[in-house]
């Protein structure tokens, strides 16, 4: 057991409800901030008790939440970070005992945790329920051990479960912490027999806890499924598997004569094909296997013979290309009459994949251009036997390429004509204006404007479609509508009003926009100036903020594309309101000109693509005129 509970900077930020940048500022600005007790200079750790006391003294924390207190006690219980999974499994098994009306399970150590930690875990279970308590602790474990713990991409388990369909007995031979098996439970509450196996003992224990808390009929075993199958003879309705990719020592030599290799001996460097055949060996009549595969497994030359046998015998029924790195293979036990086609799906959208599989898995004439196609097996049995879906789906229909080319050409011509008229015409001044400049901080002090800063960090993408829109720094830089979402009820964000001046520091310069309408929220790394129109013109303020002098004096840090700035330092010429408005009108026209230029670039790119497509398809006639060569 470690001497005391420790926390990282990220943990402190979570406790206080702030970003990590705030914690870094506290360390710099407060000499009494607790000193590190371990870790490294770049990733220090601090004593939880010291941090908790400091936060309370600074009125930044009323009371350490129960969940955090239990999690930090568990971390302290582990001898080191490599043993956290073991301690978490102990806590999970304690919760199982309480979940089962307090009857200790046979085989578990009677005192795996200290009495204080056990009481804390029990208190958390009483407050939140055993399932919610363990999932919170497990979620924190997965966050802190992200580099050590492999996990199936979060959107994949539900997709694989939907493809597997209704199944009473489900097996995952490389179950990890049980994500795929848990997805099979869904919300139906129907009884299922869930079987899992994994080579990592601690991971197996975590999976067993998660499954047993939700299902009375779950069995998880430790061991290597390829070498020591814990479920010999079991025929499942569904087998889901996210096998360990690129595992070289999977048993190629010792398993050469294994009866599971009905489709061929898997190459030593392609263990995924061993897992595919293991899954097929455990399927009962009419069962389905869904295996997450590396995309390269669809076309590696060393595996083409096994891929060909899977096709000839009718075991491989569909391949879904989810991304450049992951495919899903859907398999069934061979039938007396193998199907003549294989369904190829080229889509990253889970709903599209599921709907296509359910409607067209057995439709030999299916063809949805650009999305999916039933490909004749004979067409796949060439020298490569390449199963990459994008190579086999029909190209997107091109019936309207010529019309789209003409429409885009006309829009581009009109935009170019408009852009030229937008450029404001200003003449040189007879003599240099000597107007005094004032910093924004002074204008804020006298009440001519207010300055608002959004939080430097925040979750801007996890909200649902009904959550309020949030403008990001990238949106301001690209001149586009809000793309972020803020969680409903999150009061950190500032509502934008029409006329607000929005400022982002990008590549050591200011990008500034004036909000034409209100509604969205101000996102991270943005500043907002709300001017009093009786004294200041917003378009004038936005224009002068973009000056090179203001960028040099105000942008204090730039890491990557989006930088940080002290907007209060920026200087604004002190001019009469009428002059501000005249300059503001010029700045506004220039902003419209820049927007037209961005549209021109986008339309030009689209027009070039349509030209190439139209010539390749034969839907565009050659031009009547001959264009002279470009000047060298």
Topology:
Blueprint (H helix, E strand, L loop, with lengths): L5 E3 H8 L3 H10 L8 E2 L4 E4 H10 L8 H12 L6 H16 L15 H14 L1 H15 L11 H9 L4 E4 L6 H7 L7 E6 L2 H12 L5 E5 L13 E6 L29 H11 L1 E12 L9 H9 L3 E6 L4 E6 L9 E6 L3 H11 L6 E2 L3 E5 H4 L20 H22 L14 E3 H6 L3 E5 L15 E3 L1 H6 L5 E2 L8 E2 L5 E6 L2 E6 L6 E2 L4 E5 L6 H8 L2 H7 E4 L4 E3 L5 E3 L3 H41 L15
Parallel strand pairs: 4-5, 4-7, 5-6, 7-8, 9-11, 16-21
Antiparallel strand pairs: 1-3, 2-3, 8-10, 9-10, 11-13, 12-13, 14-25, 15-22, 16-17, 18-21, 19-20, 19-22, 23-24
Helix pairs in contact: 1-2, 4-6, 5-6, 5-7, 5-10, 6-7, 8-9, 8-13, 15-20, 18-20
Features:
4-stranded antiparallel β-sheet, 10-stranded mixed β-sheet, 38% helix, 632 residues
Overall geometry:
flat
Structural class given helices, strands, pairing? alpha+beta
What is the share of helical residues?
A: 25-40%
Unreliably modeled segments: 102-110, 459-464, 558-563
- Number of helices in the DSSP assignment: 20
**Percent strand:** 15-25%
